[in-house]
């Protein structure tokens, strides 16, 4: 470790102790040295004894900076790994965090643009409109067309801090399986690896720009979702310029109700937006927490969502989509045998999994849930329970499903906040059934024919030549096979002859040797037999080669 890393490590340790996070260390024999070091060497007192454990963890992460804030945000979504009193506190990290100096932000923008910001923009506001753990946004007006925009800029000098912190976080993750009784199930190294990839992806605003452009194109002229326009000519890895939007934050239920928004329709459309992204487009916004979702002021009776911050997106391949949709429908119908078979067929669990045992485990977990009214059942938590059950049967981790689960939990949480009576099952089932029919029915065949028709038309003139070449190659292949079979038969014949000659040679050698030992006076006959045996062996050896 470098001197800078050592200083950073001490700062992190000191912060953890200042907020009393050492109480998270389990009381086991393995952790005894750490607890002794805490009491003898690290004498920093807990200065926040009055705060709850979850609150102290959140405050410590805020104090440590962007990397730890982002880690806390991600941990808050893994309610399968962390108890509610921890996850609820960490969820507060999704709100506004302290901004950095607007002068530094302006300098970063000018470095990216290659000149004074006034060359391209008017009315630049040095005070940030909003700030997050990785970046912050400022408002301005474009000179060329007078449009109101927001300029997003990455926090300066954040990459070295991220790299140093990630090395330390990896070290902590490597210790957890040995320190915690349930450490291996938590798979800390895997969690940190996913977090690192997410973090580095968010540092590249060109990537976010491309994601936003794709999502906007998918919902162009759509009443369900609006994505702000990105002005890619001004974008770089550290800067992004997009249309400024005006909407009501999705978390401000009071403002939505005062504006006369149809809350039931809004909640149902949130579900439709999610499933449309996943199953129609195979491209979904995977960071749809309340801070990234707004509702348009226009047409409150026909509400439209506005989505920002497309730094994290997910996708599913064709097979995953089909298996997932069929899983959902099987759950709707409480067909647990089908769920178990689908998991095996998809390769999510090993092929040698006992389907009967797996079916019984799924039924044991899910049947009590279905005793409740459908409107009281959490779709996201059913999916979570399914994954946890499958994990006991050595289900391989599917990163795309983790993102999907996280996003579904976000969507369902927002939907129930807007309209507590939301029946997500009733909303989702028709969509999924129609999608399945579209994928395997007559429309799917017609669509496949249309997609392949240009290729077939291009290859049709070549068809006679392809048939001729195929027949000729088949003839050559048959000749090669016949030749190989003949050669193999000849080789087998030679081997048989060789074994026969080796047997004859061995018999002559042994017989000649026996005669020499018993009747030495008959030297002529044994010599002939031994010589004949040697000659026979040599002939057999030549046939072998």
From TrEMBL:
Cellular component annotations (GO), alphabetically ordered: plasma membrane
TM spans (from-to): 500-518, 524-541
InterPro entries: ABC1_dom, Kinase-like_dom_sf, UbiB, UbiB_bact, UbiB_kinase
HAMAP family associated with the record: UbiB (MF_00414)
Residues annotated for ATP binding in this entry: 129-137, 152
Function: Is probably a protein kinase regulator of UbiI activity which is involved in aerobic coenzyme Q (ubiquinone) biosynthesis.
Intracellular or extracellular location(s): Cell membrane
Active site (UniProt): 287 (proton acceptor)
GO biological process, one term: ubiquinone biosynthetic process
Topology in the lipid bilayer: Multi-pass membrane protein
Gene Ontology terms for molecular function: ATP binding; protein kinase activity
Pathway note: Cofactor biosynthesis; ubiquinone biosynthesis [regulation]
Family: Belongs to the protein kinase superfamily. ADCK protein kinase family.
Major place of residence: membrane
Top-level lineage group: Bacteria
The enzyme's E.C. designation: 2.7.-.-
Protein known as: Probable protein kinase UbiB
Pfam families in UniProt: ABC1
Gene it is expressed from: ubiB2
Keyword list, A-Z: ATP-binding, Cell inner membrane, Cell membrane, Kinase, Membrane, Nucleotide-binding, Transferase, Transmembrane, Transmembrane helix, Ubiquinone, Ubiquinone biosynthesis
Domain ABC1 atypical kinase-like: 93-343
């Amino acid at each position: 470790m470098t001197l800078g890393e050592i200083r950073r490590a001490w700062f992190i340790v000191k912060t953890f102790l200042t907020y009393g996070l050492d109480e998270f260390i389990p009381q086991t024999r393995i952790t005894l040295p750490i607890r002794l070091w805490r009491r003898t060497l690290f004498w920093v007192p807990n200065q926040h004894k009055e705060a709850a454990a979850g609150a102290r963890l959140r405050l410590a992460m805020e104090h440590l900076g962007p990397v730890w804030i982002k880690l806390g945000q991600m941990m808050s979504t893994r309610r399968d790994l962390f108890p509610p009193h921890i996850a609820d506190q960490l969820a507060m990290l999704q709100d506004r965090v302290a901004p950095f100096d607007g002068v530094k932000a302006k300098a970063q923008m000018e470095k990216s643009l290659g000149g004074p910001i006034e060359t391209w923009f008017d009315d630049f506001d040095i005070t940030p409109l909003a700030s997050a753990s990785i970046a912050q946004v400022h408002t301005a007006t474009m000179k060329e067309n007078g449009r109101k925009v927001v300029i997003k800029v990455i926090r300066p000098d954040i990459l070295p801090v991220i790299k140093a912190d990630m090395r330390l976080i990896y070290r902590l993750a490597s210790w957890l399986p040995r320190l915690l009784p349930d450490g291996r199930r938590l798979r800390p190294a895997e969690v940190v690896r996913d977090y690192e990839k997410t973090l580095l992806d968010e540092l590249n605003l060109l990537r976010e720009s491309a994601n936003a452009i794709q999502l906007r194109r998918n919902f162009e002229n759509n009443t369900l979702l609006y994505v702000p326009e990105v002005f890619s000519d001004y974008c770089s890895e550290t800067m992004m310029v997009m249309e400024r939007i005006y909407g009501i934050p999705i978390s401000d239920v009071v403002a939505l109700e005062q504006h006369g928004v149809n809350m039931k329709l809004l909640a149902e459309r949130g579900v439709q937006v999610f499933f449309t992204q996943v199953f129609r487009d195979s491209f979904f916004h995977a960071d749809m927490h309340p801070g990234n979702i707004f509702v348009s002021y226009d047409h409150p009776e026909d509400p439209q969502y506005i989505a920002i911050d497309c730094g994290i997106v997910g996708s599913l391949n064709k097979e995953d989509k089909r298996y997932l949709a069929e899983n959902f429908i099987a759950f709707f119908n409480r067909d647990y045998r089908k769920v178990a078979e689908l998991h095996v067929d998809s390769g999510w669990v090993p092929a040698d999994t006992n389907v009967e045992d797996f079916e019984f485990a799924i039924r044991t977990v899910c049947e009590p849930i279905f005793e409740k009214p459908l409107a009281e059942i959490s779709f996201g938590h059913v999916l979570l329970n399914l994954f946890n059950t499958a994990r006991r049967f050595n289900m391989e981790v599917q990163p795309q499903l983790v993102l999907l689960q996280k996003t579904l939990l976000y969507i369902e949480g927002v939907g129930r906040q807007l309209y507590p009576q939301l029946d997500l099952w009733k909303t989702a089932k028709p969509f999924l059934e129609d999608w399945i029919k579209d994928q395997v029915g007559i429309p799917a065949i017609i669509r496949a024919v249309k997609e392949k028709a240009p290729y077939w038309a291009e290859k049709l003139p070549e068809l006679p030549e392809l048939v001729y070449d195929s027949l000729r190659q088949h003839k050559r292949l048959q000749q090669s096979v016949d030749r190989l079979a003949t050669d193999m038969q000849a080789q087998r014949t030679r081997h048989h002859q060789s074994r026969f000659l080796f047997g004859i040679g061995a018999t002559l050698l042994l017989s000649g040797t026996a005669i020499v030992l018993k009747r030495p006076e008959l030297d002529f006959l044994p010599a002939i037999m031994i010589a004949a045996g040697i000659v026979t062996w040599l002939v057999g050896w030549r046939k072998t080669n």
